[in-house]
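Bug report (template v2)

What were you trying to do?
Predict the complex of my protein with ISE.

What happened?
Run completed; filing so the output is reviewed.

Input:
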Amino acid sequence: MTTAQTTTGTTTETSAGVLPAMAETPASQLRVAVLGVGLMGADHVARLHSRISGARVVAVSDAFAEKAEQVAGGVPGCRVIADPLAAIADGEIDAVVIATPGQFHEEQVVACIERGIPVLCEKPLTMDADSSLAVVRAEDQFAARAGRRLVQVGFMRRFDPEYAQLRALIASGEIGEPLVVHCAHRNPSVPPHFTSEMMLTDSVVHEVDVARFLLDEEIVAVTVLRPRPTRHAVDGGSDPLLVLFETTGGRMVDVECFVSTGIAYEVRTEVVAEDGIALIGLDTGLVRQSGGPAGAVRSSGITPSFKERFGRAYDIELQHWVDAARRGGIDGPGVWDGYAAAAVGEAGVLALRSGQRTEVRMAQR
Ligand code: ISE
């Protein structure tokens, strides 16, 4: 696994050391196509256009032509290419960001591998473990020939400074062996089509990756419990859920996933270790105290959505990816991480349906 840390104006720190920043001229800029310009894709276009160095968005593609035109209109020199596979094949494109709906990822990622160009694919890598494994094998074949990898998966939390700090603390040995990890993943609301199964495959998938990132172990079993549901749950679904992961080293990770809190976006992770405990995600910002008729209050802000909470993480993720893609490779979670998340997600869905502890079926690396 690659550990992303920080990017400064002149250097980029990675697990491999500090790389000198690459000189930037228009000719040396990475020419990027962004496929899918909904919420996440449009955000990536804006980020690449305004905050990321070394790249420019030269094409966008979206099933909604008007949306594509509108996003392209905000970026000088950006074309709309209606067919995403045509965008991948286009000679002007050096690298691709995939933010289309998950069912299109497999075909688009494989097309990038076949063309030999770097790609950042938003999660999920594909819709199920078998197809993710097929992508792993396709990239393995490319890597065996070319000696480099092409596919980075958008698990942005690895680039969040707090998560990077937590991982570094664990790795330093200062708090001893991690034993238990407590996670809370709360969204203020979700769209009407968001089912309890999607809470596992779309939301808790981030804790799957966080657990593997922090503990450097695979998840071997999943149990899902359904507490009394909130009356705000979408369509009578089970919300919140309590999810328990067991890892190869016998550690346990629990996740309270609650996607209709009606409050704000909260993601907390607490590692309980043999010689210490560490917590991230309090998200307090400025703490303000004031008086009033009902007595003194202390208050602070909470981020409204993942776009704000992980805004910095997305910036660092994109900058790392651009820097690595200009060298022809990636710098972050890869296809195996995408596959592992899909395999654990499948076990999670079975565990939700059956109410039973469910073992994860994973292929050999
Ligand atoms: C969404 O797709 C995300 O990836 C967010 O990070 C997560 O918090 C949310 O629950 C998902 O729906």
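What did the reviewer find?
Confidence is low (pLDDT under 50) at residues 1-21. The chain has two domains: 13-156+313-333, 161-309+342-359.
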